[in-house]
């Protein structure tokens, strides 16, 4: 009986966690995948106009560099890439003061 109860509680927590994770903004892609500093990047995703989204940034080695957002729509953001060192960066979302890296990368030349 206890095993069944624990399994039900664990399944409920898993479903709740997935619902919370899917409820907020997220990045699904980027174009172009390789860009020069100062260039214009198109970030694709979901709920990108959500008020909880404070910033989209390039992230590498614990440091983030905010993109300069030029246009913001629910499924797409157009942004200028800051002057950064050439490297491969993950994209990150800053939501309510917390930075979340996304499984989307961009190479800055």
Walkthrough of the structure:
The chain is of the alpha+beta class. It has one domain: Sandwich (Immunoglobulin-like), CATH 2.60.40. Helix content is 20%, strand content 52%. It has one helix at residues 2-23, and strands spanning 26-31, 34-35, 40-46, 53-60, 63-66, 68-72, 76-80, 87-95, 98-108. The longest helix is centred in the N-terminal third of the chain and has 22 residues, at 2-23. The protein is globular. The chain starts with a helix and ends with a strand. The relative contact order is 0.22.
Present the secondary structure layout:
Layout: H1 2-23, E1 26-31, E2 34-35, E3 40-46, E4 53-60, E5 63-66, E6 68-72, E7 76-80, E8 87-95, E9 98-108
Parallel strand pairs: 2-9
Antiparallel strand pairs: 1-3, 3-7, 4-5, 4-8, 6-7, 8-9
């Amino acid at each position: 009986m206890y095993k069944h109860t624990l399994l039900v509680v664990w399944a409920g927590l898993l479903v709740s966690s997935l619902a919370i994770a899917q409820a907020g903004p997220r990045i699904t892609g980027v174009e172009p995948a390789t860009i020069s500093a100062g260039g214009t990047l198109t970030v694709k995703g979901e709920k990108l106009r959500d008020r909880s989204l404070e910033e989209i940034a390039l992230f590498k080695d614990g440091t983030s560099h905010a993109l300069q957002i030029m246009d913001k729509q629910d499924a797409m953001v157009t942004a200028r890439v800051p002057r950064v060192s050439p490297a491969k960066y993950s994209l990150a979302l800053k939501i309510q003061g917390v930075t979340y890296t996304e499984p989307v990368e961009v190479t800055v030349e």
